[in-house]
Amino acid sequence: MVTYEAEHPVRLPALSAGWLTQTFVHWSFPPETVQALIPEGLTVDEYEGAAWVGLTPFVMADVRPPGVPAAVPGLPTFAETNLRTYVRRADGRDGLWFLSLEVAWPAMVAARVIGVPYHPATLEVTTAADTVTYSGRRWAGGASYRLVVRPGDRIERPTERDVWLTSRWRAYTRRLGMLWETPVEHEPWPLAGATLEELEETLTVSAGLPAPLGEPVVHFSEGVRDVRLGASRPCPPAAAAV
């Protein structure tokens, strides 16, 4: 069961930040199509019989190491955009698998050493009176997107699907022939509905995905400010499927 609140506290974060002005655009796909892009040891998670892939642009704010408060001037703040899907290990532990991550701060590309598929990109996030516009282009390969959304009313009681599409508390990567997991903790997403005003993107095609099964599901969030990322660690062998 995917939970609305963090599953476990991250008491010793390796990195802290805020994830702000975030939009979630989700498409459904046949599970076997997405499974072909997932490494051994992970199974694509399904909701209502479909796999889901999310395009999630946002602002990564006040990135800092352990012990540094968010109020310190000059902390890095930059745009990031993730293309992600949802997976489970054989023991039932769910999480994210990133198909790609575009980032406007090249120093983050160093995370490739732990298996995170970062790509340096030129990204922009702009807000108007009632819309938010995201745009980006990868430096190498040319994958790009432009997204305009109109945030709607606050969702006071998120549905099971709202939570399933937005809340995950670990991310998986693969390196050195092993699966690794990175735990995450933050306050629950304050979600709102959103209207998709414009979308042009080639990130899904670049990741190897075909056309989706239907129209996208869109959410907006002002964001979460107390994000705590734990250190990546090898996944223990799974004893049994759940």
Q: What report would you give on this structure?
A:
With 242 residues, the protein is mostly beta strands. It has a single domain (15-232), classed as Acetoacetate decarboxylase-like, CATH 2.40.400. It is 7% helix and 50% strand. It is built from three helices and 13 strands. It has helices spanning 31-35, 160-166, 203-206, and strands at residues 15-29, 43-44, 51-64, 78-88, 94-103, 118-127, 132-138, 144-154, 170-175, 178-185, 191-201, 217-229, 233-234. Strands 1, 2, 3, 4, 5, 6, 7, 8, 9, 10, 11, 12 and 13 form a 13-stranded mixed beta sheet that branches. The longest helix is centred in the C-terminal third of the chain and has 7 residues, at 160-166.
Write the layout of secondary structure elements.
Layout: E1 15-29, H1 31-35, E2 43-44, E3 51-64, E4 78-88, E5 94-103, E6 118-127, E7 132-138, E8 144-154, H2 160-166, E9 170-175, E10 178-185, E11 191-201, H3 203-206, E12 217-229, E13 233-234
Parallel strand pairs: 5-6, 5-9
Antiparallel strand pairs: 1-3, 1-12, 2-4, 3-4, 4-5, 6-7, 7-8, 8-11, 9-10, 10-12, 10-13, 11-12
The CA-CA distance between the termini, in Å, is 11 Å
Largest sheet descriptor: 13 strands, mixed
Mean pLDDT: 94
Name of the top-level CATH class: Mainly Beta
